[in-house]
Amino acid sequence: MTGTGTPEPILVLDGVEKAFGALQVTRNVSLDVRAGEVHALIGPNGAGKTTLISQIAGSLRPDAGRIRFDGADVTGLGVAARARRGLGRVFQISHVVGSFTALRECRGRGDRGRRRCVPVLAAGARRSRAQDEGRSRARPCRPGRPPRHPAGSLSHGERRALELAMCLVQNPKLLLLDEPMAGTGRAEGERLTELLVSLKGRIPILLVEHDMNTVFRLADRISVLIYGAVAITGEPAAVRADPVVRRAYLGEEEAV
Ligand SMILES: Nc1ncnc2c1ncn2[C@@H]1O[C@H](COP(=O)(O)OP(=O)(O)OP(=O)(O)O)[C@@H](O)[C@H]1O
To answer: What's the pLDDT tens digit per position in 96-121?
Structure first.
């Protein structure tokens, strides 16, 4: 709980900074993700969105600033420790192993071996309550193929759905999604958007996405990153109307 009696957001960034040599990529970034909300992070190419996600996930150490997750300061923790605390990340680039079956992909991500994994795409096995929750969240992501189908034969959109399932079976407390729509065709993109809509309100999501239709359909709040700094955080209507954002970013996307 915060001093005001409201629950602390699941994720709080306070003054997060990262430079690669002389290139300052994230600048004094402060934002939060509240329970149950979809918070979209948008911005032009190279604005620092993936770099910020990597700092939240723990694969990049911030140069300055603090990161609180689920009530604890995790700034000094690595990827595995943050994942164990419930941070789930779906990458911009596909990480499925083509020769594995969809089922085995999900098991592999259990990361503590078979006893801890959830066979999300198959029936059976004794499950804990947490596993049941993860399994039920992941169910809508089931690719339209048998679970023992090699993952390499899935379409791009099915792989993205599988990756989401691989993350959800671990029952994360927060989902970090980096451009889930990237590379998908229209029909696949719509199916993925529907999957994300089905998760809305059930799990908080920090969503990096260039597809503005998806962003404005899903987001409760939007933060706009420009040259590594948060230009505005607000509800979609306020962000859409902001003149600085329109000039710097949305102006390129008049179709929004
Ligand atoms: N490991 C790295 N070393 C050096 N520069 C990097 C590294 N990672 C990212 N950058 C640079 O940091 C800047 C921000 O990159 P980042 O991938 O975070 O942007 P982005 O907003 O996610 O872009 P996009 O929307 O195109 O995915 C870019 O100029 C990129 O070249």
So the answer is: 555 555 555 555 444 443 333 333 33
Tens of pLDDT, residues 12-50: 999 999 999 999 999 999 999 999 999 999 999 999 999
d(CA 43, CA 227): 9
Report the distance separating Cα 113 and Cα 14, nearest Å.
35
In this structure, what DSSP letter does residue 92 have?
Answer: S
Specify the residue with its C-alpha closest to ligand 1, atom 25: 45
20 CA distance to ligand 1 centroid (A)? Answer: 9
ipTM value:
0.97
Mutation pick for ligand 1 pocket among 42, 51, 93, 225 (CB with most ligand atoms within 8 Å): 51
